[in-house]
Design a protein that fits this description.
124 residues, 2,3-Dihydroxybiphenyl 1,2-Dioxygenase, domain 1, globular
Length: 124
């Protein structure tokens, strides 16, 4: 369809404590490309999202992000080496092979957003 090309899509991730969440994501490995008082643009490679100083518990507790990577075990080692779960008092679970063809781990951010960070292990 001519003229209907897309460039990208970004989620607006909620943050109860905006400064704390910005630091969490930088420790996780995202680069802070731009920030204002209540909005930040974070990216890692070609993957990005907008962090917003916005919090409604019901929204945050049901918000999930999925990050597909090439080496999930390297990402897990990074999370462990940085002590992210203990530093931010958040839940994290080690990588597991899932029946849907993904090896992933879960990580909850300081606001309650659930991240699934994984790699494709399905057969081509």
């Amino acid at each position: 369809m001519s003229g209907l090309e897309t460039v990208e899509i970004k989620a607006f991730v909620p943050a109860r404590d905006f400064a704390l969440s910005k630091q969490f994501y930088q420790d996780l490995g995202f680069e802070l490309a731009w920030s204002s008082e209540n909005m930040a643009y974070l990216h890692h490679g070609n993957c990005s999202f907008l962090l917003q100083g916005f919090y409604v518990r019901e929204h945050a507790d049901n918000f999930m992000m999925h990050l597909l990577v090439t080496d999930v075990d390297a990402w897990w080692r990074h999370v462990e080496a940085k002590g992210i779960a203990s530093k931010y008092n958040v839940a994290a679970g080690p990588p597991e092979d899932r029946p849907w063809g993904i090896r992933d781990f879960t990580l909850v951010d300081p606001t309650g957003v659930l991240w699934r960070i994984g790699q494709d292990i399905s057969e081509p």
